[in-house]
Design goal:
Largest sheet: 7 strands, mixed
Structural class: alpha+beta
Strand content: 15-25%
Distance between the termini: 142 Å
């Protein structure tokens, strides 16, 4: 046997052991892999099984909010002044799987069932509609290079390049316009944000849509609401406006409201009480829950909250008194114009509880183009020189500075260097503080102003008043609410206007008689309330309570708005009583400036006549000399229930005009008459025509 072919037994044995080791190692590795697989399957099935099962059956929940009515408003005697009326509405809700072609198809079906308003459409809306309806044509408006741009950029270019003839075709086709209107409405919200498409629907239209809902994906018929006003235009301006479903949230306030959970198409308060109390009047919306699968398909929907009306407001206003005062002003303004006052076109009355600040009536009326229009907001939003009606504040300021009761000044013209003569409407000779109020002495007030400024009057001498003297006088007046905001619960209140005297420091004397700075009718009512109530400046308020909504009447009180005292004037009770004596002489003593019109009415008050210039709606008469006629007072004279101001700007310069006093007389009579009626039944509706 050849030695080279002989097998070495020891070597063969080693090879065999190596082979067996490798086979065993291989099986061991396979075993480990199998064990790892078993462990992994155990983890998946036992530990994470529920999680993976949920993923396979994953669903998403979205909530849609549907409109509920806003809160109502009631007057002080619980008469409804702002209500809601149910109206049917068609809504459209976009889901996550909704595509543009789905909206267009639904729009075509719905357009056959209702008449759609198209007045809101802008040209941009028509361009958006055309791009959506004709995507292939829109694609051709772009170059190959432009098609590679971002989607938002390509869309902008397409919208800009829609041919004008295509827009004209849409405008000339009423059916196409309706489709465009529906598409724009459908596209105006986010997913699961119902959009009100139409509300002005006939019963027949509502029935047709309701019958076809299965063929109108995303469409629903709901009960919506709209504001109604049982007293028509009475106090309507101050009640405020709300936006329409078409307007939604005003653009300038959109981020504010959206951050607070409002939908973009939601109605919100736009002015005055509706705006001021938006947080309370806004309802809790009805909520519908949409459950969709992982592909976005809705598999279930259910209502999870029926919603509720917003909170109700109880107002301080007596709506019947408001209405009667409107009629009084209308009659007296027309009569004044009939006496030749061709520029007088407005008048204001504010009547309030002097202790609580409750505004019982706040009326502004304006004559324009042969009609009397509501101008209530002018009572706190416009300002005028008020004349001698402020003299109660001037005398009280004098007492604060040391003026003694019964102090006499000689009423004769004041002559200052480089200043026009200043005088009362007549030379009165020696007058005391009470006589100065009764007969409305300007000169007496001039001496008070000079005393406060520390100026000794020298005939024909200089008048060394300073800006600090003006500020000192204004600080006194601010105690009475003159020249500062009253704090009423309304937006856009005017604080009045403080004029700059420039080099003519003699204007300090004009300030003392209400013929320099300007004030609002509401400020005048707050000022005279201080005299009526014994020295407290109380915030005027229109809302006294906020109530939970109920089906009938006012519900439980959710929040009270208590009377708020802003300050007490720096006068004693004796000071205030002294001025009240003077105010009684004005109306109850022969020679008083309002005695002829108000004698026997048990009213105390102060008249005012301010020289001014006309700057109203008739520009051709701007700068014409006119008088502002005013009256501030309270009733009854000894134990006041109400305080009030009357302001009639821009009458002709005539000493015989007394429209301010006539209005004062008539509104007190209206108040007294109503109190007698209320003694029997405070909720009895008025039978008077508006």
């Amino acid at each position: 046997m050849n030695k080279e072919t002989e097998t070495n037994p020891s070597e063969t044995k080693r090879q065999k052991k190596t082979r067996i080791f490798r086979i065993n190692f291989f099986f061991f590795i396979v075993f480990l892999l199998f064990v790892a697989l078993v462990v992994r399957l155990g983890v998946v099935q036992i530990v994470q099984g529920e999680e993976y099962s949920k993923e396979v059956n994953r669903t998403e929940i979205d909530v849609a909010k549907y409109p509920a009515p806003r809160g109502k408003m009631f007057d002080r005697y619980e008469r409804v002044v702002v209500d809601n009326r149910n109206v049917p509405a068609v809504t459209y809700t976009v889901e996550k799987t909704t595509k543009t072609k789905d909206k267009l198809e639904t729009a075509e079906k719905l357009a056959k069932l209702i008449n759609m308003d198209t007045s809101f459409l802008r040209e941009r809306d028509l361009r958006d509609y055309w791009v959506a309806k004709y995507p292939k044509k829109a694609e051709k408006l772009l170059s190959k290079k432009e098609r590679k741009l971002k989607g938002s950029e390509t869309y902008r270019l397409q919208v800009e390049r829609v041919p004008e003839e295509e827009i004209k075709k849409i405008k000339n086709d009423p059916k196409e316009m309706e489709l465009a209107a529906l598409y724009i409405k459908f596209s105006s919200g986010y997913a699961y944000e119902p959009q009100i498409v139409a509300t002005d629907l006939s019963e027949e239209e509502v029935s047709r849509v309701a019958e076809q809902l299965e063929d109108l994906p995303g469409v629903d018929v709901i009960t919506d609401w709209e504001r109604v006003y049982p007293y028509d235009d009475v106090f309507r301006t101050i009640l405020g406006k709300i936006s329409t479903p078409k307007e939604g949230i005003p653009e300038e306030n959109q981020s504010f409201f959206v951050a607070r959970g409002y939908a973009r198409n939601e109605r919100v308060g736009k002015s005055y009480l509706e705006q001021q109390y938006e947080d309370y009047l806004n309802p809790r919306k009805a909520k519908v829950q949409y459950i969709s699968d992982k592909d976005g398909n809705t598999i279930e929907q259910k209502q999870i909250d029926e919603g509720r009306r917003g909170y109700d407001l109880k107002l301080s206003i007596d709506i019947e008194l408001q209405k009667r005062i409107e009629n009084i002003i209308d009659q007296q303004l027309k009569a004044a114009r009939g006496r030749g006052n061709y520029l007088v076109d407005r008048a204001f009355v504010v009547m309030m509880d002097p202790y609580k600040g409750d505004v019982l009536a706040m009326v502004g009326r304006m004559y324009e183009s042969g009609e009397m229009l509501n101008f209530d907001y002018g009572a706190f939003g416009t300002q005028y020189e008020m004349g001698s009606a402020v003299k109660g504040a001037t005398v009280l300021a004098g007492y604060q500075y040391g003026l003694k009761y019964g102090t006499v000044f000689y009423d004769a013209p004041i002559h200052l260097k480089d200043t026009p003569e200043k005088s009362s409407y007549k030379n009165m000779g020696p007058v005391s503080d009470l006589t100065a109020l009764k007969q409305s002495s300007n000169v007496y007030m001039f001496h008070i102003a000079m005393k406060i400024a520390g100026i000794q009057y020298v005939p024909n001498g200089k008048f060394p008043a300073t800006d600090e003297d003006f500020q000192k006088m204004r600080n006194y007046y601010a105690q009475f609410g003159l020249g500062v905001p009253t704090g009423i619960d309304l937006p856009q209140e005017s604080p009045g206007q403080q004029s700059d005297p420039g080099a003519d420091k003699g204007k300090l004397l004009d300030l003392a008689i209400g013929q320099f700075d300007t004030y609002t009718p509401l400020q005048m009512a707050q000022y005279v309330s201080i005299i009526a109530n014994g020295g407290y400046r109380v915030t005027p308020r229109l809302v006294t309570e906020i109530h939970e909504p109920t089906d009938e009447g006012l519900g439980p009180i959710a929040q009270e708005r208590p009377a708020k005292v802003l300050n007490k004037i720096n006068n004693t009770e004796q000071d205030i009583e002294r001025v009240r004596q003077g105010f009684k002489l004005v109306t109850n003593s022969p020679g008083g400036t309002a005695y002829a019109q108000l004698k026997g009415m048990n009213v105390a008050g102060k008249t005012g006549t301010a020289e001014s210039q006309y700057y109203g709606t008739k520009k051709q008469y701007w700068g014409t000399d006119v008088y502002n006629l005013t009256f501030v007072g309270y009733y009854p004279a000894d134990n006041p229930e109400v305080a009030f101001s009357v302001v009639v700007p821009w009458t002709k310069p005539s000493g015989s005009e007394d429209v301010n006093k006539r209005i004062a007389r008539d509104i007190v009579k209206a108040y007294k008459d109503l109190q007698k009626e209320y003694a029997g039944n405070p909720q009895k509706p008025s039978t008077e025509e508006k």
